[in-house]
Amino acid sequence: MGCGDTWVPARGSLPHPAHSTQLSATSAPTAALQHTGPRRQLWVRARRSLPGRLPAGRLFNPGGGAVLTQRRRGAMSWYRNTVWFLTGLREYTRSGYDSASKHFVPADLEVNVTGRSFMITGANSGIGKATAMEIAKRGGTLHLVCRNKERAEEAKREITTETGNQNIFLHILDMSNPKRIWEFAEKFKTEHKLNVLINNAGCMVNRRELTEDGLEKNFATNTLGTYILTTALLPLLANEDDPRVIIVSSGGMLVQKLDVSDLQSENVTFDGTMVYAQNKRQQVVLTEQWAKVHKNIHFSAMHPGWADTPAVRSAMPEFYEKMKNKLRTEAQGADTVVWLAISPAAAKQTSGLFFQDRHPVSTHLLLARTYSSPEEEEKLIEALEELSQKFKPA
Q1: For residue 50, what pLDDT is reported?
Q2: Active-site residue numbers?
Q3: What is the dihedral of CA 269, 273, 279, 281, to 10 degrees?
Q4: Where is this region: Disordered (predicted)?
């Protein structure tokens, strides 16, 4: 699926309280939901909306201490996913957008961006395409970075026809190929200017799959690819007025604590949904770290909510069928991306924040224990820098 599109827990992320004895009979999350009343009814709604269940015991090691540790980890994972999903039912759906949009300032998007240059990865469908459409309507020069040439050309034709904007350029690039990303960025810097970079492309592969370079594909696309493209284009962005970098992340990252010990998921039972969520957490950490270093560029990450995109329909058909009447439109999902990319109001926000419906929101759920240390965050940057340099052309 495309990054920035809807993320939902994998199978079993929210076990029914009756099935939670493996965690802890006295755990607070279990106790909080094992009763009748409105909260119980909301739980039932949440469970019925889920696509399925997670593989059990993926962190399990035989032995008494390991069992206790597993139960604690399982209880915390269950708590995070429960709180996150119930929050999603309230905030990430179409009704959540309708409620939030009552407080939007329409004038924020009444902007003419003629003369400004925007790069959008993964722009041939979903959130990326909807973002491109809105920016094209306002006169921006667009660089659409897509993997599939045929779909990219179709998207360009549609955007050009609907907006009349002729300043739309296609670049065919696989964001899981680090060497090609470096080559593309170096060439782009010699031919174009760039005011805004929108990192939207991504994937969620549910089996551990390696690229031709031997990289786990989700990590290569969502994290390393984003890191290389952004790093390579920072000097170009810094030369322009009001430069911005936006990462279309996902609220799914809220259920993950940064884990720098196994960036390519080599030592765990592979779960594509959780790997995707971990990648999204990594993107948010990158946004925060870049903002600290590059003071003259405005960085932001965002969650588009649960949107009805082609990726959701194909990757999660069961979830789509159960939730399709509650999903946001692609335009609603893209609204905050557009706002962050063109609005003067967005540039006044502190750099490095995480946004949902045009407002900065916390990057952590209450009591979820997902905070990482400065050392862990620095280790992520070091690992990505070291790996990226291996693919940089001499």
Answers
A1: 44
A2: 276
A3: -110
A4: 1-38
Please calculate the CA angle 186-147-246 and round it to the nearest 5 degrees: 65
Q: What strand order describes the sheet that includes 353-356?
A: 168-172, 141-146, 117-121, 196-199, 244-248, 298-302, 353-356, 359-361
Region of residue 115 (left: phi > 0; alpha: psi -120 to 50; beta: else): left
Average pLDDT, the chain: 85
Quick check: 129 and 154 in contact, CB under 8 A?
no
Q: In this structure, what token pair is assigned to residue 136? A: 């094209």
pLDDT computed for residue 251 by the predictor: 92
Strand duo 244-248 + 353-356: pairing: unpaired
Q: What is the pTM of this model?
A: 0.83
Angstrom distance (rounded) from CA 206 to CA 272: 4
Give CA–CA dist 358/189, Å, rounded. Answer: 30
Q: Token match 């592969």: residue? A: 205
Which residue ranges form the domains of the chain, and what is each CATH number? 95-389 (3.40.50.720)
**Closest listed residue to residue 199, CA positions, set 217, 181, 180, 213:** 181
